[in-house]
Amino acid sequence: MNPKIARTVGKYELLHLYLRDRFANRVVLTFAEIEGLVGFHLPDGARLDATWWSSDVATGVSSPQSDAWTLASRTAVVNLPAQRVVFDRISL
Q1: Domain map of the chain by residue range?
Q2: Under the phi-then-psi rule, with left for phi > 0, alpha for psi from -120 to 50, and beta for the rest, what region is 13?
Q3: Distances in Å between the alpha carbon of 12 and those of 49, 74, 81, 91, 92?
Q4: CA–CA separation, 13 vs 66, rounded Å?
Q5: What is the distance between the alpha carbons of residues 69 and 72, in angstroms, rounded to a whole number?
Q6: DSSP labels for 27-78?
Q7: CA 64 to chain centre
Q8: pTM (2 decimals)?
Q9: In what order do the strands lie in the sheet with 84-89?
Q10: What is the mean pLDDT, run by run of 10 residues, along the chain of 92 residues?
Q11: Which of 4, 49, 56, 85 has its CB 3.0 to 4.6 Å from that of 61, i.e. a possible disulfide?
């Protein structure tokens, strides 16, 4: 495990690596697929509160889960009823 990544994304490192290593500009994952990647169930907040999937890079407010996709140069847009997340590559 890369210590630098582990400090930042914590238990979401495998999600980070998956998103980082995808060539596609858009990656769509169900909650079940994300749980399969990380090896544990997502917390209730991920299923009930869209803000769990947000991050504010401008103010520096983040969480281990949002760092997983932002450090992979992705945004996350959740569809709670469909239990699906769209991760789009951030254009530089």
Answers
A1: 3-89
A2: alpha
A3: 18, 14, 22, 23, 24
A4: 11
A5: 5
A6: EEEEHHHHHHHHTSPPPHHHHH-GGGG--BTTTTB--HHHHHHHTTTEEEEE
A7: 9
A8: 0.85
A9: 26-30, 84-89, 74-79
A10: 58 96 97 98 96 72 87 95 97 75
A11: 56
